[in-house]
Sequence to fold (1109 residues):
Amino acid sequence: MEGIGLKILGALLTTIMAFAVGMTYGGITRKLTARVQNRVGPTIWQNFIDLVKLQSKKTNIYHGVMGHFAPMWIITAAMTVLMFIPVLHPNSTWYSTWFPNLTFHGDLIFLLYMMVFGSLGMALGAGQTGNPNSAIGVTRGLSQMVGFEIPFVLALVALMVQYKTTSIQDIMAIQDQSGVWMMFSNPFSFLAALFASLGMFRYSPFDIVGAPAELASGPVSEFGGKYLGVMMTGGSIFAFIKLTLYVDLFMGGAYSIPELLIKTFALYMVPVFYGWVSPRYRTEQAIRYFWGWPTALGILGVIIAVW
Amino acid sequence: MENKRNSQTIAEYIKNWSRKHSLFIMAYGTGCGAIEIPATLTSRYDAERLGIRGAATPRQADVLLITGYLATKTLKRVIRVYEQMQDPKYVIAFGSCTINGGMYYDSYNTINVLEKYIPVDVYINGCMPRPEAVIAGFQQLQDKIARGEADNGTRYKENLEWYRANQHRVIKNWRMPDYNW
Amino acid sequence: MNTLALIILIFFSGATLAYLSSLISNKLPGWVALLTTMTGTVLFYMSFQNEQALSFSIIGLNLEWALDNYTILFAHIIFGLGILASLYSVQYMQNKSQQGSFYANFLLSIGSMFGIIISKDFISFFIFWEIMTWSSFLIVVWNGIGFRKNGIWYMAMSAIGAYAMLTAIVLINSEIGTYSLQAFFNAVQENAIDNLMLVSILLLIGFAVKAALMPLHIWAPRAYSNTPASYTSVFSGALSKMGVFGMGLVLIRVFRFSGLQDNFDYALVSQFTSHVLAWLGGITAAIATLYALVQKDAKKLLAYSSIAQLGYIVIGLAIGTKLAVMSALFLAIMHAVFKGALFMAVGAVERQVGTTDMTKISGLIRRMPWTFFVTLVSIIALAGVPPLSGFVGKWMLYEALITNGNFFLVVVVFFSSTAAFLYSYRILFGLFLGQEEDDTAHVKEAPATMVIPMVILALFLIVTGTYPGIVFEPIAHGMEYLGFTDVTWNMTVLSNVWGDSVNLQYVSTTIGVAFMLALIFLTFKGRKGTRGVSTKDISTSGEIPLEHENLTFQLDFFKPFERAAAPLYKRSITKIYEDVANGLEALFDFTRKIYTGNGQTYAIYVVAFLVTLLIVVQNML
Fold:
């Protein structure tokens, strides 16, 4: 019984940490963006304030049962994926004490599909609102997903084929043994995955889903108050998940929380930096972008991995 | 402390504090004042440091900005947007035109007093108000929120009949869904 | 009397009875069909545990029928889907004409499918195959609409398949002197067949037509979308699996376990064929997915999606490792279930609304909640998203491909199943989401006899998502019949040869707990201030659309994607076939011109022929 209690506590702690880190990174990005634009900018806790504000809205509306369910799907997917990802390195002392999750019961392919679960819920909720902007945003998002999944999957296939495992923990253990991070031993795959991450985080030039200028924030245009708040939470957790996945796969995982924060933050800055200097692509340009050099790098990575 | 919280409960105080520091604005570019908004939000005056940022749709927005004179045609749209916003919501009116009609006081197709059609929290006078004045206006709104006195939505709900009567008077082809709160 | 013969007899006499009863009343055949399938199904499930075999001879041909584990696996699909489809059909066909011929063919095709899988000799196999083809063809052209457009393609492609199969059967007979399947497998073991590869490829062509493999797939979208939905679910769910059934026999029993892998040439050719087939499956999946997502008609979309899903199954069979075959057979069953449910759901929409054109329908979720639920569950399974059973099959397929080293094929499969999300969303959004139409305000949920079969299928998907072992058990037995030894499976844990695994129970528990927490939080927090609004109440920049104006986004749904993937849309197989046909026509037209009807021209031909002959003969000497 005590074991289960500790596990639940650990799961709770992981979720809270993922949420806090994701939100803070969002806040830091806002601050940095402001500094780049020669502004003072909000505090780095601004996203938390926004969230509390959204949750304390007095009235909320939904457009039907799927609209009500959509935020739940997102947060469910986020929490489930988080449970199946090794937040810290399995060998670290922190891991077994504070972050015992269900990593041993899932693998990479499962994670890839589980990540889609939230998007599907989001898409259904956005569809139910009846706002044409939402549906257009969803079609754009799905199309873009077909774009960046190709280099991403190529990168993962290279790792899986080369090291004959589909388990994240085994990939981390291999990096531990050889002492070389995957980003150096499989540089092409890493680059392909990095390009794919540009699309995943949806900063410029790939912010075609939200597209505040012409789509009025796209899928979320009819959501406000607590619904938007929960979506924001889910999105923050997902940002953390993607970063942790990349750190686990390509940077050897992290032994302690500060190490995790440094590595994830460094990765997070890639799409952010790329976004600052880029205007927005059109959807077909974004898809073509991913099917171009990133895919070529991914194929190269697979060929090298096989030989 | 008692004084500062203005006899609010702690939960209410925290809520109001977060509302004060996170204002999503729905910039309704009705009149010439719309040109002041970009200046307020961008590098020079940087309203984001006060937690003010643009919202794309009324569902996400907290503050409705009426930036200048309102044609009767536009008024209908403004009312629609206002009614789609969720409580608590606030309205800031820019310039003389929203107070008494300003230089359009005798125009046949603009309204003179905005307060008759939707409740307004803060007026910023000037023709047009400069970004400094706009930010001062926002700060005044923030103070009002922190004191827990900004209850725009409730005012509208309570006096709905009066507002509706006024709205019906100027909008001839009334074809709007009911406001059922 | 033998149960197998009895079941066949029941279906065939039921068909006659259904047709005759239509002469009395148009309502009767549906009930006759339901009764027939029920009797047949009950008989089968009462006796399938026992060893069943029957052999008899007619006009000197020995016919053998028997049940084995592989057969039972497919019999589950046929009877499970058959009985639900015939229950669904009663109300669905209610007001349609010519029910007699429809139900007669319906029963004939179910009976003949069962006949195919129990046949242990090529003669009865081929006869049942042809009955199946003809009965399904007659349903495709059942309402007499679009015969030239839809029927011809199906008939032409089926003819190609049938001729290929017939040639193979004749070749086999000329080599081993018997039509028995067992004798054929034995002869393969002993390397007694000289042109085994030719025979196998001919047989594969025959099966590939029914499994809608590229480039023989073009009949499928036309035929699937032109049949009544109650039959389409059987057509796409069970009938196409007959191709899979045959392919499994050839690819696994003949290619993989023939005992001839030591023979270098043979191994090379069989592996090459398998690889080509796997890639054909992959390309089929990718291209069919691309075509599915540009469809405007829900039924056509599902038809293309069926082709894509069958592509995955063919890949699994062609790869032929234990996990791959398991995933292929699992996907075959799951495809029967979710595609059966989807076609039924779309049929329900068609019956209640009158069209399946997604540009004309929107916002049916409030009108038809059960149909939406079924569609949602089936679509999640189709897309392969956990925790439903589609994920189990997809996972096994990916792991099989990766562990087997087919790394580029896995990317093709990944591409097509990611693109499948697009059409999955298209059909959910197109039919059920978006703003409500005034025209569909009167629409009600489909009658209970239509909803119940769909819901049963959906529940099956949910249960097998966590406990796929229910389905693994018959599959494992079937695989043992095909030649695999010690096939392992677990009730809830999936694992591959590298030792990586997914525990589905943990997955569904986590999802369930997280979802319940979120549900409680979101529903009860600020409950008083939360309300539902109509889909007309949307933010449209202050503009208020008129009552009858519908803003739902339906046309050119994935236009940006189409633009990005434009080169992939350029070539169309149908066009190539038509070009070939036109070319042939032109050639024959030209040949016809030789016969001018003028005696002198013919005289010149004779002279020219003689001169040519002389020159050739002289050169040869």
Remarks:
- The beta strands of chain C are 53-58, 61-66, 493-495, 501-503, 530-532.
- Chain C has three domains: 1-145, 229-523, 572-620.
